[in-house]
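Changelog note: in this version the structure field was regenerated for every chain. One regenerated record is shown below for reference.
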Amino acid sequence: MAKKMKKIVLAYSGGLDTSVILPWLKEKYNCEVIAYAADVGQGAGELDGIKEKAIASGASRCVVDDLRKEFAEQYCFRMLKASAIYEQLYLLGTSIARPLIARGQVDCARKYKADAVAHGATGKGNDQVRFELTFMALAPKLKIIAPWKDASFELRSREAAIEYAKARKIPIPVSRKKIYSRDRNLWHISHEGADLEDPSNEPRDELWVMSRPVSKAPDKPAYVQIDFKKGVPVAMDGVRLAGHELIARLNAVGGKHAVGQVDLVENRLVGIKSRGAYETPGGTILFEAHRALESITLDRDTMHYKQQIALKYAEMVYNGLWFCPLRKALDAFVDETQKNVTGSVRVKCFKGRATTASVTSPKSLYSDALASFTMGEEYTPSDATGFIKLFGLQMKGRGKE
């Protein structure tokens, strides 16, 4: 006979879905439900009143963790050092936040001796994988409850969820239908659904939230200086800042100049192609600055091999494999490559683009003398003759008629 459930920790956002999932769990399992909310920089008052709302919806308690600093420095910056970008464009804003939220949920479950963890991700998306793989890696004995994949879960439409909430007097967000499905944190905001589901539709100007439309960006560029130490951004315009503070300031500058807007049809892990629009203003500035600094501090072979690692790292983040041995092993490689990635980069933000204006480093491998068109003692042109002959020997052999 199955053991009776006593306590469940639910990943709780205070939105419509989790607002009705909370009492649904109580009714189905006849047990205590703890609401867990992680502050990863959602902003815009998203967590205002969330504790009161959770208690009014039937939670025994609501735990809110401020994870912004950890999110920036131990998750976003690790991904930045690895140069991880999914399918050339996506800076992995939602993907990188989910394992941290799920880890916090596991910690909460352990603290309050819960039997299970639950989430409100649907059976079509990537988030279900990210949550559940983290649960499995960190607390394999905890039961995982995913209502959207439960055959008895009847609240599969917005209308049904609203009626369910009204019948039980559960406080829910205003019932006005949202145009887009959005996920926001310190690193980015994503937009899906509505007219975006048709790839032939251009994103509307009113879509953008963290940034202005390019057409409304200022006619004068803004410049920011980012200082790095061993691949980690530590200061902006000479002011040393904690990671989450630095990203927030860059978001403001980049957003004003329409930096970091991406329109992408991506390949989900579950086999579906989905179209989304993303805004990552601060992250885009940081990726450009980090790329520029690596260009003068990494040797050719290390840089080229790191580019291969970046593809694998991005896939692992996207697929929810943050807490696996390979990611930790790759971090060790990445950290080794970053030992000399120290210096300053000045980035120009203008009309939707972030471009490097200047880059300096005390560890620079760049040589003015070698790069110059003027021949000097550092380089003997005749040496290239023998080198090219040997390098092309196989091609010359194949070219015989």
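Spot check on this record: Residues 16 and 197 are 22 Å apart (CA to CA). The radius of gyration is 25 Å.
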